Amino acid sequence: MSDRPAVFFDRDGTLMEEVDYCNNPADVRAIAGAAAGLARLSEAGWMIVIITNQSGLSSGKITQAQYEAVNAELGRQLDGLIDAVYFCPDASANPTHRRKPGTGMLDEASSDHGIDLARSWMIGDKDIDILCGQNAGCRTILVETGYGKKHLSVGANFIAPDVSAAMEIVLGHLPE
Ligand SMILES: [Mg+2]
């Protein structure tokens, strides 16, 4: 299997504006400039993967159908440029290794799609996103949207004002 590099994105607060336990597609707002950046990443050869914790699925705040409707709306707003989505329904109090900062979802994506984690990036707005990327050996970018301003000291490789700026950083590092 040939190894491709990927850019892993957190969803809520990173690719779309933060809505606590978003369960309504009418509340989905892609971050400005996200679709244009994804198009450039895709063109440059990066695989684009969403990695999202969705504990609302196990607490009953989000149904599976609502989760899927929200994802579909985000995908539509992002011009169908998302190659794959991995989600973890675990409760935060009772996580498996799939829940970020665990690397289970990245490991699955790597196995499913032949992704080279060492050449990949993780972009997110929380400490758990950055720690997940670090745990998997990815380079990391913290965005200041969503909860990002609360997690500036987590030790990401880069900090960017939003996902659009984060993708500019990735685009400055061509897939090797
Ligand atoms: Mg987030």
Indicate the topology:
Blueprint: E1 6-9, H1 34-43, E2 47-53, H2 56-59, H3 64-77, E3 84-88, H4 104-113, E4 121-124, H5 127-136, E5 139-143, E6 158-160, H6 163-171
Parallel strand pairs: 1-2, 1-4, 2-3, 4-5, 5-6
This protein binds magnesium ion (MG).
CATH-derived architecture: 3-Layer(aba) Sandwich
Tally of DSSP β-strands: 6
Bound molecules: magnesium ion
Instruction: Give, in spatial order, the strands making up the sheet with the most strands.
Output: 3-2-1-4-5-6
Query: CATH class, please?
Result: Alpha Beta
The percent of residues in helical segments reads: 25-40%
Q: Give the overall pLDDT as a whole number.
A: 96
Shape assignment = globular
**CATH fold-type name:** Rossmann fold
Strand content: 15-25%
The CATH superfamily appears as HAD superfamily/HAD-like
Low-pLDDT parts are none
Along the chain, the helix and strand elements come as: EHEHHEHEHEEH
Number of helices: 6
- Calculate the terminal CA-CA distance, rounded to whole Å: 17 Å
Major sheet details: 6 strands, parallel
Radius of gyration: 15 Å
